[in-house]
Structure formats: structure tokens, C-alpha cells
Design goal:
Helices cover 39% and strands 14% of the residues. The chain has 231 residues and is α/β, with parallel strands linked by helices. The protein has a single domain, classed as Rossmann fold (3-Layer(aba) Sandwich), CATH 3.40.50.720. The protein is globular, with a radius of gyration of 16 Å.
Length: 231
């Protein structure tokens, strides 16, 4: 199986590359600044190819598609994401919200994922697995929002969820599935050291859920625990 992984320089994306490689799959690992991604560079070689990719730059996304040539891609993992800009409080409260930061977060987390998905559709059509997987968050759930705040992150992940549902509807006739999956609160640079879930456990669960998902599950909000997450 050949998979594209965005945001592969660290965290969930990097661990996805590690685990895909360990189980014998081929990974097209994408990072905005691959030259500074030391841990990713150590994986480069047999069955791991590193690509420069900025999901906010259309030319960069087109360059990735061109670099893949006529390759068949089985799964696209849209992992690249940001928590929010630096010009607001950690909780991104209404009173100090920086709208430029909201726009930037949307461009990475939602529009960037759509850019990648659309650009790589010709490659996915040639694949045998035909899955688009977008790493979302429980904070993108409207039902689960009981604490407010976090505007940029919550809004962008909710938009990502809607994007995935529309892709699922539009592409079902071609046998292409699209899912969002909540990875849990994970011990990464974004999740922080207080998070309860090691990144190795989260990614192992993500792969288990994605491997088991079928076209009948397309459009669903998957959860690393194996249960569906509330919209």
C-alpha cells in the first residue's frame, strides 16, 4: 500500500510514517520544511520518500501532485494542522481573538486539506484502497463543545468535518471513501505533555480504524477508541 502523509515532520504525521514503514507500506511523507525535520530525515530511504509541501500554497500542492507522477495512491492522510495563531490567548477567547489568526488556521486545517485532497484525486483513483483520511479533533464537534473558546481551532476542524462529508457524498460513486478521525488528546507538541495518550497508541488505533473502515462508513466521524464521535 502507498500512502501520502501530510504534516509528517512531527507528532501524529511522523508516527504515521514510522508505523506505515514498519508494517511494510510505502509512505510519501510531506513536510513544510523537510530540511529541519531531523526525525523524518532518519526514515528517508527504502519505502519512505520525503516531499516539501506547504498546504496553504497552491503551487506547492501542485508540485507534490507532479512529483508523484502517475503513481497510484491508496490512502491520503491529511494530518497537517495548526492550533491557532500566536496573537491570542491559549483558549482563543472572544475578547482577544485575532481574526487574522483565525483565517490562517482555516487555511491550514480546512482549506489546506481540501487542496491536497483535490490535487491527489487522480492518484487516488488509480489506487486500490481509495481512502481520504482527515485527522480532525473532538474540538471540531458541535455536540461536544461545552466550554466555548478555541474559536480558530474549533471552527477550522468543524469545517474540515463538513468537507469530508461532502467529499464522501460526491466520490462514493467512484468507490472513494472520505473519513475524519479524532485521534484523541495525544502527547505531541500540540497536545502537550499532560495529554493522556501516547502518540504511538493513537496512531496504532488510527491505522486500525482506517484499515477496518469500508465505503459504507464513508462520511463518518471516526474515533480512535473504535466508536463513532458525535458531530
Amino acid at each position: 500500500m502507498r500512502a501520502v502523509v501530510t504534516g509528517a515532520n512531527r507528532g501524529i504525521g511522523l508516527e504515521l510514517v514510522r508505523q506505515l514503514h514498519a508494517r511494510g507500506d510505502t509512505a510519501e511523507a510531506c513536510a513544510r520544511e523537510p530540511e529541519s525535520a531531523d526525525a523524518l530525515q532518519k526514515l528517508a530511504g527504502h519505502r519512505v520518500t520525503i516531499h516539501r509541501l506547504d498546504v496553504t500554497e497552491p503551487a506547492s500542492v501542485r508540485a507534490l501532485a507532479a512529483a508523484l507522477g502517475d503513481a497510484a495512491i491508496d490512502i491520503v492522510f491529511n494530518v497537517a494542522g495548526v492550533y491557532g495563531g500566536a496573537h491570542q490567548s491559549l483558549r482563543q477567547m472572544a475578547e482577544d481573538l485575532a481574526l487574522d489568526d483565525v483565517a490562517r488556521t482555516f487555511d491550514v486545517n480546512a482549506t489546506g486539506a481540501l487542496r491536497v485532497a483535490l490535487a491527489l484525486l487522480p492518484h487516488v483513483r488509480r489506487g486500490s484502497v481509495k481512502k481520504l483520511v482527515h485527522v480532525t479533533s473532538g474540538m471540531g464537534s458541535i455536540t461536544d463543545n461545552t466550554s466555548g473558546g478555541y474559536y480558530a481551532y474549533r471552527m477550522s476542524k468543524a469545517a474540515l468535518n463538513m468537507m469530508s462529508r461532502s467529499l464522501a457524498i460526491d466520490l462514493r460513486g467512484e468507490g472513494i471513501a472520505s473519513y475524519v478521525i479524532n485521534p484523541g488528546w495525544v502527547q505531541t507538541d500540540m497536545g502537550g505533555p499532560s495529554a493522556p495518550t501516547p502518540v504511538t497508541d493513537s496512531v496504532c488505533a488510527i491505522l486500525r480504524e482506517v484499515d477496518g473502515a469500508t465505503l459504507a462508513d464513508s462520511g463518518e466521524f471516526l474515533n480512535w477508541t473504535g466508536k463513532r464521535y458525535a458531530w
